[in-house]
C-alpha cells in the first residue's frame, strides 16, 4: 500500500501499489490548491466534544461541497514557517459579511 497525498484538496489515502500511476508531466505544471497550515486558534476541547467540534467545523466550512472559503494570513509559525490562517466563510445570505470560523467555534464553546 502507498500513502498518497492529494495535492488538489489536501486529503490523503492508502492505495494499492498496482493502482498507483505516475502523473503525466502536464499535471505537474498545475498550481496546487492545498497547503500545510495552522488555524489561528488552538482547539481546546472539553472531554467528548471532539466529534461535535469536527461536525460543526465541517458544517461551517461546507466540507466536501467545493464551495470557496477565504483565508486571511495572520502570521508565520516560529520555527516551522508554517502559515497561520484565519478561515472566513459567508455569514448567511449576505455574501458581503463574513464569519470567522475559529471565532464561531469559540462562541459555541469548542475553544477556550
UniProtKB/TrEMBL annotation:
Tudor domain sequence ranges: 2-40
Pfam families linked to this entry: TUDOR (PF00567)
This protein's name: Tudor domain-containing protein
Species, as recorded: Macrostomum lignano
